[in-house]
Structure formats: C-alpha cells, structure tokens
Amino acid sequence: MRHLLDIAHTGLTAVLLHPLRSLVSVAALVVVLLPYLVGLGLSKGLQAEAEASVGFGADLYVTGSRFGRPAPLPLSVVSAVRALDGVMEVVPRIVGEVLLGKERLHAVLVGLPTERLPAWSASIDGDLPHGGGGPNQLVIGTALARRLNLKVGSMLLPFYHAERGERPSRIVGVFRPDAPLWQANLILTTFDTAAHLFDQTGLATDLLVWCRPGSQAEVSQRIEQGQLLGDLQARVKAREDLRTLLPRGLLHREGIFNLHFVLVFVVGILVLLVTSGVGLAERRREIGILKATGWQTDEVLLRGAVEGICLSLAGACMALLLAWLWLRLFNGWGVAGFFLAGSGAAPDFQVPFQLTPVPALLAFVLSLVIVLSGTLASLWRAATVAPREAMR
Amino acid sequence: MTARAWVLLVALLLLAGASAAVLVTETQLQRSREERTAEFQRLVGGLGFGPALDLSDCIFGFDPRLDGSCAQEYAPLPGGTCFCPRHAGSVLYYPPPPLGALTRPRSPCRVPVWFLEEGDAPSP
After folding, report:
1. Least CB-CB distance to A355: which of B4, B26, B92?
2. Which residue in A327, A326, A334 sits closest to A351, CA to CA?
3. pTM, 2 dp
4. 3-class DSSP assignment, residue A93
5. Å between A30 CA and nearest CA of chain B
6. Is A243's Cβ below 8 Å from some Cβ in B?
C-alpha cells in the first residue's frame, strides 16, 4: 500500500513537471465543461419553474374558441361552471397585452378578482391592488420597472383608451427579482381594473377551475361537451395535459443539446491526446527513463491515472465554480438569451438555474473520461515499448 | 513529496471544497426560490410556462394555457411554427398540448382470450 501511495505521489508531481501541458489540459476541460454545465443548469431551472407553474395553478383552464382561435368568455359562464358537480372554485381571469411608454414596451396584463388577491405577498415589494376609486392600482414586473423607471408610488399617465374615460395609474408594488421569470413584463391588477383598461366589461379571457380530487375528468368532459358557453366552443386544458408536455419536449431538446456536447467531448479527447504523449516527445522520454530505472508498466499507468484524476478534478471544479459565477453573479449574461427568447444579453430578472450534485458529478466523470482517454492510450503505447525506443 | 506538490494538493482540496460549498449553498437557495415561485403561481393562478416573456409574438410560447398552438402556425406563412423565434429555437421546447386528453375515451384494453374466465363472457 505504501508503495502504491508513493507512486500516486509521483503522479501529483508529474502534474507540475509539465506546467504548460497541465494548464492547457485544464483549460481544454473548462472550455468544454463550462457551457455544458451552464446550459444544463439553465435548462433544469426553467423546467422547475414550468413545473411549479403547472403544479400550483388551477386544475382546469377553460377558454372559449371561435374559428379555432381563443375567444373571451362571458362572465355569466362562471355561475354555470360553478354549479357543476365536483367543482370547488371558479375564478375568472383576464390576461392580455398592453403597450407602455414611448418605446411601446410589450406588457402582459393580468386581472384577478379582488377577493382572490391576498393582503400581502412575499413575491411583491409594496402592496397588492385593492380596487376602489381613484387611480388604477398596478403591480409591475422588474423589467418594466427598470425600463420605464418606475417604482412603488410612481404615477403612470393613461396608456389606454376607454369609453368610460381614462384614469392615471399608480404603481402600488413591484415584483421581486427572484420571483419567476414571467413576472418580468407582467402587470397585476384587479379584474375590474383590467376590464376597464381593455375597455371590455362582462368578459374574461379564461376561467380557473379547481375541482374535488378525482373529479377533474368528469368536470372537464361536462364543460367540453355541454352547452355552457352558448355559441362559443369550450376548450379545457387540464393540469395533467400540461404535465405531459414538459418531459416530451425537454427530453427531446436535451438530447440534441447532449449530442452536440458529445461531439465537443470528442474534440476535447483529441486535444488532450495531442498535448499528452502523442504530441509531446519529452513525455515519452520521461516514461522511457522510468522504465529504464525499473518501473513496471502498471506503475507507469497508475502514475498517469493519478495525474489524470488531478487534472480532471481541477478542470471539473473550476468549470463548476465558473458556471456558478456566470449564473449567480453575472445572472447568465450572454447565455440566457439562447434559452429565453426576448430576454436579451443582460436579463432584467433573476435567471432561474439549478446547479445540483448530479450534473457536477457528471462533469467530473466526463472530464475523467476525456483526460484518461487522452493520456492513458499514449502512456500505454510508450510504456509497452522498450525504454530505448521510448527515449529516442 | 515536494513542497510544490503539497501546494498543489492543498489547492485541489480547496477547489473541491469550494465546489461542494457552492452545491450546498445552491440547494438551500433553491428551496427559498421554490417557495417564492409557489407563492407567485398561487397569486396569479398559474401563469407562464415557456421561454417567451410576453405575448407579443407567440402567446403559446408564453403559456400554452392561453393559446393552444403557436400563432405563427397560421400567419404570415402557413406552418410557420418552425420559424417562431419565441419557442422553436429554444431549449425549452414543447409541442401543443393534447386537447381533452383527460376526457378522451381510452381505447378498450385488449385482454387475451385465454386470460378470460367463463364468468367474463358478455351476457347475451
């Protein structure tokens, strides 16, 4: 055992014997692993946010349809759906687009009934809108707040046209940056205010339906096949329908993502193959000297394996730390736009990501495979020939 | 072992320790983020699913609950989903949801004849 430890120590010394070669190897590993870890972290973070959106939402989403396109629902439908057996709660919601400011920024306006809004929310700095007279009360997302230079208490001139007259709006709250990414361009207000802003009374874009456990299918069937919406066609999207979407799509794209990196890993192996024994005559001579002084082939290989483990550990750890810095401190600067269309190079919200032990371990295993594939083969070739040949 | 080798060993251990600390910290931060996400989603009744951040080009890319398919599918070119910048080029891709999957009648389960017992035969 002592003998093996001594050989392992020489492996550690071998890292320092060719500092340039070691630096190039670690740099090659970091270049390969860093985008892989960042991409995987972002992908997992987005997936978790999407899963939470489905998990904490309603059981069923009812929308109207005309000509195969979404159409608003009359509010009279709410009581009809509420009367269905198995339905616990029905909440009408307005979701639409408004344009703000001189730059005509696109914002998603969401209106929910006042009684549905809690008194306080941890995801908002400031207050929630609570109807009543006076200016429209709005909670806005971080991207809108930054671009329009708005904060809690700011007033917004009328940005809409309504038959009943326009009113200025007051910012009562701003979403926190660590809330989900969809808050970035969101405006939350009461249902009545949203109806006023869109100048559409008595209509909702969708109904959120919560059902008793086990009765979703039955309720969904009744809404779809009944005549609750009159001449409108009913469309029901169930939580389970959405849950099936993520694995199908994400696994497909992750497969393509991984396939690209398999090619990059192959290039990494070739780079290390060149920087190790194949391209470095000095290294072959060094193995020849070791063999001439009595080292066995397995001892030379053990020395090379320890050296490879040190290099791959350094590469994987540095890649992980840099990926964390990129995502946490620099908020995915430059890379988030590839995953989130429209976020730009510098996102205005906290980019969701997950750096878990499994990808980190995977990075170490991959780096080990790359380094050992690149070095052990050349070591074996040099160690199995006569010392005189290796030293030539 | 030489002093330089010891320095290298310590540096490697420090790197590994820092990586482990990052992973532990991130796991704890993740929990608080999950709570914040849950609260936001309860507040708005479940909103947002895809990589789009507004409704400007593709409502489906923002949330498939608001629109069942990509708006680019119909205009300006039929079958334009492939060109939709909001979700076609993103890693977070998903196909249109199967409408009514919950209520669609399941195909009858096929049972081998040899598995049936006498009592399973339909009554005339």
Report:
1. B26
2. A327
3. 0.82
4. strand
5. 13
6. no
